[in-house]
Known about the structure:
Layout: E1 16-19, H1 25-36, E2 40-45, H2 51-59, E3 64-68, H3 74-88, E4 93-96, H4 111-139, E5 142-147, H5 157-168, E6 173-180, H6 189-193, H7 195-204, H8 217-224, E7 235-238
Parallel strand pairs: 1-2, 1-4, 2-3, 4-5, 5-6, 6-7
Helix pairs in contact: 1-2, 1-8, 3-4, 4-5
Amino acid sequence: MTAPRMSNLFDLTGKNALVTGSHKGLGAAIAIALAQAGANVAVHGRSGESQPVMDAVRKAGSNAIAVMGDISDAKACEEIIDASIRGLGGLDVLVNNAGIIRRTPAAEYSAQDWNDVIEVNLNSVFRLCQLAGREMLKQGSGKIINIASLLSFQGGVAQLTKALANEWASKGINVNGIAPGYMATDNTAALRADEKRSRQILERIPAGRWGDPEDITGAAVFLASSASDYIHGHLIVVDGGWMGR
């Protein structure tokens, strides 16, 4: 097998990608970065709030479509995958980015909050991996990137990523993950507004700052490209050094 030229390793020209939760935050940055590397992108949100990201994808010279749906609903997951394949003409890259946070002391945590978080952050990841995986298995190739968190090292999405990688690596499908550290997004607005807690977090981060959505894009393009063809079941930590301290 002839190795691709270094200049082509990160080239996603002609590839079709779906990024869930890409109307803002980390997902938006990833969608735009994939487009800048040449990929066409299905930009996902729960409703029609994706236009600015779609405009940025098109400005990069790539095709953009909007796909909508609540990923906590199994039927919606099917529709999101189907719409992406129809609109783009195929699916080569899936980025499971959409997620929610419910911060409450354990003793006060409601059953509804628990169910909501599990449904969106874990069940939907498996559903979308399964649905996209069926298409990728047919074509014999594909890249799946699960956006997890540092808490993944205690279980959850990281272990699902490894399990799928073990099963699909020999079929030409790479399943990997990214574990962002403390990122400046809407999900962490309350933490950043808490002066004491924010200071404690910053003191633990060797880089001395919260991460920006753009900080995660290099890892996402790498895992979506042929540069990562021999990487399976791996979780890339993007945390400013937090895990190393």
